[in-house]
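Crash report, auto-generated. Payload:
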Amino acid sequence: MTQNSKKLTAIVNSKAPYSNTAGKDSLDIALIFGSFEQPISLFFQGDGVWQLLQGQDGSNISVKDYLKTFAAFEFYDIENIYVCQDSLTERNLTHYFHIDDVAVLENKEFAEKLAIHQTILRF
Amino acid sequence: MPTLHIVRQNAFTSDDFKQCLQVTRINDIIVFIDDGCYNLSHTLIKTIDSKANISLNIIGKHAQARGIAIDEILYNTINMNDLVQLTLKTSRVITWQ
Amino acid sequence: MKKLAVVVTTPPYSNLSVTALDYIETALNAGIELVGVFFYQDGVIHANQQVEIASDEFQCINHWQTLHEKYLLPLHLCITAAEKRGLSDEQSQNIHSIFTVSGLGELVELANKADRVVQF
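Recovered output after restart:
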């Protein structure tokens, strides 16, 4: 790897999981950063929080269930996962996610956490 | 350590601008480009805390193309070169699209 | 001197790509180093040789070509995103020669080389 190998990258997920490819495209980037041992943090905001909802099964609508891959985050050392509390509240969602070790943050903390990263992509 | 927010969508269409405002911090810089220029007509823009010292900018030709009048007291009219320079001067950039 | 990388996710028939090109051209003309452009999602359609845009409309490909020749700007195509959209360097060979067939690993490289990554 080149210089600045400890540069922090964040991806903000803002789309619901199935009607477009944003969530999968974002996941592919996260896993590549993970496999190159580059730090990557994941943020879920707006409709992106639907990606974390428990009890989903994309096979009903012929979607290859990429959300199951989220369970592999720890093997890629993807440990910084943040969810926007306001987005959950707006959607009447609780803190039951299909993966563990997710930090739910209020707006101010969510914003502060995002601002420690040098590179931010959003899908 | 300000963040540059490039806003390409407007709040009439999507929640991108709303989400932008959720993470905007004191001294951050917002630039409205493309259809993000229409946010100047949206009530959401009035919710920005005037004490937070957030700089509001708009690409002049993107606004002109859309027939949007710019209140020079509230917004700085900038060009593409200014946007490039802002990218380098701020600490990070997020594109809201 | 700070370096930039740009990620393009918008297709050539969208005015959003005109903005992306305007940004990139302005940066290069100002003498700023661009370590590369990474084409992802619908951005990969820029590389399709068979795209025909009416001759009186903005021709993105001509601008990419000029930038590639004048500034040796690397244009990286995410091949997975490209193949999903009918582009191939094997069977159909419809990828414009100014583009480099790459994978997401290249995005990791660009993000490391650049001081700022801007998404368009």
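Post-recovery validation: The mean pLDDT of chain B is 97.
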